[in-house]
Inverse folding.
């Protein structure tokens, strides 16, 4: 048997669905090869990294990594992808200096995890937890508006509460001044659908709204917890309601390995596509897109903004930023807390302008500021963001974290050669 066939046989035995017993290799702690991680131009610390596995079939046996220097066991998690190679994910513990390479050994068997990322269905929301700590809740059931507000303000398809590692809630729901700004949401404001002006942002206008449609998948694990849901942009201006866009949200919460982390970290990928042959036209406008409303009680006096260009509330509105932070507190006696949105360089019109409100605690990345655009049938708009939910004011290393997100480190998998018995 030539070398290529021997290697293919080894991969099938190691990673395929077929359960095989290899006499010369024990089921636990069998060495499969190595994974090398090379940091980019900035240091790498507690960040997710990944590598494709060479076999397209599902991995049934647990795997882990070993740091040869410390003998520390590092958990891994497998992402299965239709039509693509499975992907192995890990969060590298500790720090790699810029340009430094670390080689880890890939072995069979599970590594003990101090805590996992889990998803709980509360009957109203999908609550994502890291260990015993709540990170966020995605509201899939319609949340009725409070009795003192118009019923049209009720909604689903938003994230609230968002909670820091220290237990502070940094989002709001049905804020009295602008009750349509609930938690974290994605909506467009000035739109034209089938020749009619519509609006998915100001839901009291009763022209349109965004709502939860269905759960697609959810996954828990030692590296991440992931929720995939489908949302609908519903136009209400015609003779009957009609879905203009179907939007897939992939929400992935990463497990922070430190016992007392500075922040929680999660990603959202939005895949918005036309639900019919009708495009959605988006004329130039000053807000609309991926938005977050800050905590209840955050006022102009006790809420601060900071963009990647060093701009603040006073001069940062519509700054084309790689990231933007909002931090606030209810009283002068409290400490600050907040969240940072990192915008991915593949996003439409990156760097996107960020809408910073002159008095309210909310911000939104909004491509519509730069002129008319549209979402057409067969061409989805895919946007990606990373969120850092932190105690204290804006993180000092946000540029470094953005670089790790935008330009992931190089990761290489080298499988062990088959033994003579396996040939």
């Amino acid at each position: 048997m030539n070398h290529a066939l021997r290697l293919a046989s080894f991969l099938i035995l190691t990673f395929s669905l077929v359960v095989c017993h290899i006499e010369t290799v024990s089921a636990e702690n069998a060495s499969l090869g190595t994974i090398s991680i090379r940091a980019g131009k900035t240091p790498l610390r507690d960040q997710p990294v990944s590598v494709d596995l060479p076999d397209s079939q599902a991995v049934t046996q647990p795997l882990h990594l070993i740091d040869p220097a410390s003998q520390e066991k590092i958990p891994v998690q497998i992402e299965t992808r239709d039509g693509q190679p499975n992907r192995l994910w890990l969060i590298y513990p500790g720090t790699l200096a810029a340009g430094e390479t670390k080689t880890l050994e890939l072995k069979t068997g599970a590594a003990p995890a101090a805590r996992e990322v889990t998803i709980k269905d509360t009957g109203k929301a999908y609550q994502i937890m890291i260990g015993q700590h709540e990170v966020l809740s995605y509201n899939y059931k319609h949340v009725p508006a409070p009795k003192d507000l118009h019923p049209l303000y009720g909604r689903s398809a938003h994230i609230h509460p968002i909670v820091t590692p220290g237990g502070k809630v940094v989002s709001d729901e049905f804020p009295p001044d602008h009750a349509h700004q609930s938690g974290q949401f994605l909506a467009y404001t000035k739109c034209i659908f089938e020749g009619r002006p519509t609006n998915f942002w100001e839901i009291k206008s009763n022209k349109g709204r965004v709502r939860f449609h269905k759960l697609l998948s959810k996954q828990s694990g030692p590296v991440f917890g992931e929720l995939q849901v489908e949302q609908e942009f519903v136009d209400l201006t015609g003779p009957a309601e009609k879905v203009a866009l179907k939007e897939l949200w992939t929400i992935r919460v990463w497990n922070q390995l430190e016992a007392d982390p500075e922040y929680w970290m999660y990603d959202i990928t939005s895949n918005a596509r036309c639900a019919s042959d009708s495009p959605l036209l988006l004329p130039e406008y000053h807000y609309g897109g991926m938005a977050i409303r800050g905590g209840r009680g955050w006022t102009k006096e006790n809420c601060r903004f900071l963009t990647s260009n060093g701009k603040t509330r006073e001069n940062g509105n519509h700054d084309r930023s790689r990231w933007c932070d909002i931090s606030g507190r209810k009283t002068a006696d409290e400490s600050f807390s907040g969240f940072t949105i990192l915008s991915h360089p593949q996003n439409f019109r990156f760097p996107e302008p960020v809408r910073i409100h002159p008095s309210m605690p909310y911000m939104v990345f909004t491509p519509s500021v730069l002129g008319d655009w549209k979402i057409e049938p067969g061409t989805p708009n895919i946007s990606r963001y990373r969120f850092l939910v932190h105690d204290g004011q804006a993180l000092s290393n946000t540029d470094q974290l953005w670089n790790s997100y935008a330009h992931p480190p190089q990761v290489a998998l080298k499988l062990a050669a088959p033994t003579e018995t396996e040939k």
Q: What stands out?
A: Helices lie at 3-15, 398-406.
